[in-house]
Amino acid sequence: MNPRIIPEDIIQRIRERADIVEIVSAHLRVDKAGQNFKGLCPFHSEKTPSFTVSPSRQMFHCFGCGTGGDIFSFIMKINGESFTSAVRQVADRVGIHVPSVSDHPGGDKIARRRETLIQLNEDVANFFETSLWHDSLGKRGMEYLNTRAIQEETIRTFRLGFARPSWDALAKAMHAKGWTDNDLVDAGVAISRNAQDGAQRTGVYDRFRDRIIFPIFDLQNRVIAFGGRVLDKTQPKYLNSPETLLFHKSQQLYAMEKARTEATRHNALMVVEGYFDVIALHQAGIQNVVATLGTALTSSHLPLIQRFSKNLKLVFDPDTAGIRAALRTAAVEMLDLFAGRGISVDVVTLPDQRDPDTVVREEGTAAFDQLVKGAETLIDFVIRHNLSQATDQSIEAHVESLDTILAIIAKTSDSYQSLYLKQIAERLGIDEHALRMQHRAASVKTNKPAKRIRRIAEPPPSPQSGQVEEMLLQLVIQGKVNPEWLGDLQASEFLNRDYQTLFSWARAMPENEHLTHTQHFVSFGERNPEYESLISRLALRPLEFEEHTIERAVRECVSRIKARNLDNQFSERTRQIRIAEREGCSTKDMHTQLEALRQEKSAYAQ
Ligand SMILES: [Zn+2]
Fold first, then answer.
1. Contact (CB, 8 A) for 192 and 181
2. Strand, coil or helix: 175
3. Mean pLDDT over residues 438-463, rounded?
4. 47: CA distance to ligand 1 center in Å?
5. Closest Cα to residue 15, out of 91, 80, 67?
């Protein structure tokens, strides 16, 4: 599962030399607060800082949304990178050389190939830009952008370009720079002739011809693909790079790298339909805007989206037939997946078949803002659309629409369900009771248990005993506990399963490495991301006692856990004796055991 391409000791050295405060500061403002630094969390929207960075522990934790971890997981989360690439980034910063591991044939070869393709894409992007700005043929492209009212500054920001009306202009230029046909095909900017029509011809031809070019960037602003739009009515109107080592269109969003900051700031991300809509809105100062890359918005976009915002606004012209159909079918999945992750989805309806580009150009930003304010929830939107269908179509379509609506309603919370059912019954003039019956049938069918994200630190069985367990574990993770104080306390004596895991892990550490070094937990969290938030929370939560009372506190926690467990055993044994007596069995042995428990218990009496 865990591709540890970089040796553990090097990771350790990198971690020791790096400074998490410095890395975090590059992304948000943090101010000193006691021993730690605090700032507004980049992972959720908040007004008072609960995002805490600890220079001494080299960890971060947000006490608002629970996101936490070490320097590598911060980079992974904020940039959406892999562990390996996060480690390499920090390594570069602190000047530690990470050997390029050629003995890991698979992983490293791919990583190197990706690097190569990124360099090639950069050359390609430059070529397209030069064609637009300096080529006589590019004039047509520039004129076209003028008619769309795209300003020069915007053209530069988005690095728009032009592909000449030629079969090999790009290929020739790239050959001259030393790139091979193979490179061009792998990057998706050229197409092999062989693949097209038998083996008679060799070589490649340009994929993008006579088109405005939109480079597509990753979150680090590296060109990973291209989109191209025709200047006239030629089909296809839009053409994107194919899937490559760098480009997975169903997971990426156009201009996410430019929208991320504003999306986090406003806690809202708008999704529009096309490149020009994105560009026009950004140009107008509305910058929390992205577009899908020729695919519908699906669950595969989720990981990217949820890093930046919990509120999604789909800006569509819902009267376009295709969009309407797509929304209807996608709605159930969206509600399932997005709502399940706490992401709200609203639909911004644009009037009169207009696109966002036209609205901001002709009516201004304020008019667009107004439309966004009037967004309805995805559920309301889909119900409304299905209802209008249900009222004016055939019986079959009517039934189908109703089924769709009921399936959607089944995904909402109970309190909304009855509200919606009432509304629908009224609109369709159906008996509300009958609708409810049908709804119940539909819910049984669709009601698979929602996939719950594993919750760490679930509310412990009894708040009091849970608090004791948590307090003890906090002291352990913060490195405050001398192993002797723990006596023979075993992980199995904790009731909370997550605490059990962490404690058994602490127990497994070699004693001479100091049983409870925080760094060990940091590495543990890296290898087991589901524990990261719990570890960072306990590591960074302020201690409630003074240093000199810690030993007493630890011993008391241990006693209370033991006493509680003995209590539980004692009551269980008593219950068994009662049953045995009722059934006339001998209880002599049981009483002896009970007596032993009583004595053990008295040792922990408070
Ligand atoms: Zn947060």
1. yes
2. helix
3. 46
4. 11
5. 91
Amino acid at site 292: T
Quote the ligand 1 centre to 40 CA distance (angstroms): 8
Q: What is the pLDDT of residue 423?
A: 75
Ion ligand 1 residue ranges (Cβ < 5 Å): 41, 43-44, 62, 64-65
* 37-41, 398-402, 452-456: least confident range: 452-456
Q: Which two structure tokens, joined as six digits, stand for 512?
A: 């001479």
User: pLDDT, tens digit, for every residue of 345-373?
Assistant: 888 888 777 888 888 888 889 999 999 99
Q: Is 463:457 a contact under the CB 8 Å cutoff?
A: no
Query: Residue 293 in contact with residue 218, Cβ under 8 Å?
Result: no
Helix (H, G, I), strand (E, B) or coil at 313: strand
Tokens read off for 495: 């009731």
Give the mean pLDDT of the chain: 81
CB 195 within 8 A of CB 242: no
Give the model confidence (pLDDT) of 25-70 as tens digits: 988 899 998 889 999 998 888 889 999 999 888 899 999 888 899 9
- Cα 84 to averaged position of ligand 1 atoms, centre (Å): 24
**DSSP-assigned letters across all residues of 18-83:** --HHHHHHTTS-EEEETTEEEE--SSS--SS--EEEETTTTEEEETTT--EEEHHHHHHHHHT--H
Cα(43) to centroid(ligand 1), Å: 5
- Please give the C-alpha separations between residue 371 and each of 153, 321, 364, 368, in angstroms, as whole numbers: 27, 21, 11, 5
Share of the chain above pLDDT 90, in %: 26
Q: Is the pTM of this model over 0.85?
A: no
Q: How far is the CA of 49 from the centre of ligand 1 (A)?
A: 9
Answer yes or no: is pLDDT of 451 > 60: no
CA distances from 34 to 8, 42, 74, 107, 480 (A): 32, 21, 21, 43, 19
Sign for the CA dihedral angle at 351, 356, 359, 362 comes to negative
CA distance linking residue 246 with residue 229, whole number of Å: 21
Q: Given 3-state DSSP classes, what are the helix, strand and coil percentages for the chain, each rounded to the nearest 5?
A: 55, 10, 30
DSSP, collapsed to helix, strand or coil, labels residue 272 as strand
CA distance 149 to 152: 9
Peptide bond into 165 cis (omega under 30): no
Confidence of residue 101 (pLDDT cuts 50, 70, 90): low
Tell me what pLDDT residue 450 has.
36
- Please list, residue by residue across 535-551, b when 16 or more beta carbons sit within 10 angstroms of its beta carbon and e when fewer do: bbbbbbbeeeeeeeebe
pLDDT at position 395 over 50: yes
Tokens of 115: 């690097």
Is pLDDT at 323 greater than 70 in this prediction? Answer: no
